[in-house]
Amino acid sequence: MKKLLTTSAALLLTVPMAMAGTVGSSDITTFESGTAARAADVNATISALVAAINDNADRLTALEQATPDNSVVGNSYQLLSINSSIAAGGVPPEGSFNAHAFTNVSNGSLKATISFSEGGSANFSIAAGDDAEYEVNIPDNKLRNYSDEPAESQTVTYVQNGSVVVVSFPEDGTVFDVEFLVSGDGSLLTSANKEYDANASFDDGSSGELAFVELIIGTRTGN
């Protein structure tokens, strides 16, 4: 019986320790060959190990059941947008500045910062030179640079519902929404947008088709 108790105690000391929490040396008894294993010592050692194992189990359960904090409130994000659009216009009305039907392809990139405050408002800012857009037009076959050099800053509004944040941007008297998905820990924002208009109206007075796609990735930079 002594040998069985000693062996059992030795197994308890070596195997569970890989999974259990910290157990102090004062909480256990080291058994030596030829020494009787007293019930009190064995029970004390087992109790210390059981307590550590239960503590670890409680901690793991709490971690598994914890709801991730993905709120954007109080956080700032560095946004990077890559976008592309294609427009095809018909012959414009007589007297228009553009005498021909046209097709153009536009590619752009945008770096910006958005900082979310309490109450549903946020600051959206673009540093000077971080808004780039280049457009090729047919039939004149020219590359035009429509990059915006001045810095910009504006107040926008947002609503967060779980893992979705909808940011509303005012523009030319209207408002357009951008929907972001938020990672479980709130460290990333992602958005993929597309638009197709089969009856778009253009500045030269013509109408035609317009297609637009955009990918936005935001990385949390701090509070």
Written overview of the protein:
This protein has 223 residues and is α+β, with helices and mostly antiparallel strands. The protein has two domains: 2-65; 76-222. It is 18% helix and 47% strand. It has two helices and ten strands; from the N terminus they run H-H-E-E-E-E-E-E-E-E-E-E. Strands 1-2-3-6-7-8-9-10 form an eight-stranded antiparallel barrel. Helix 1 (2-14) packs parallel to helix 2. The longest helix has 27 residues, at 39-65. The radius of gyration is 32 Å and the shape is rod-shaped. The model is unreliable at 1-20 (pLDDT under 50).
Quick tags:
single chain; 223 residues; alpha+beta; 2 domains; 8-stranded antiparallel beta barrel; 2 helices; rod-shaped; disordered N terminus
Question: What is the radius of gyration?
Answer: 32 Å
* Mean pLDDT over the residues: 82
Write down how many β-strands occur, each being a DSSP E stretch of 2 or more residues.
10
| Helical amount | 10-25%
How many domains? The number is 2
Strand order of the largest sheet: 1-2-3-6-7-8-9-10
Q: What is the strand content?
A: over 45%
Main pleated sheet: 8 strands, antiparallel, barrel
> N- to C-terminal separation?
63 Å
Number of helices: 2
Strand-and-helix sequence, N→C? HHEEEEEEEEEE
Tell me the structural class: alpha+beta
The shape, in one word, is rod-shaped
Which runs of at least 5 residues are low in confidence (pLDDT < 50)? 1-20
